[in-house]
Amino acid sequence: MKLIDLLRNKQLSVYQCAKESQIPYTTLSDLVKGKTSLENCTAVTLYKLSKTLHVAMEELLEECFREENFEIYKSNVCHLVKDKGDLDFIIDTLQENRIRIYWERKWYPECFYLLAMLDYLSRENDLPLCKDYEDIRSCTLPEPLYPKDVVLAAKLDAALDVKEQCLKEAIPEFRRFNIIESEIRNVC
Question: DSSP string of 68-102?
Answer without folding.
Answer: GGHHHHHHHHHHHHHHH-HHHHHHHHHHHTHHHHH
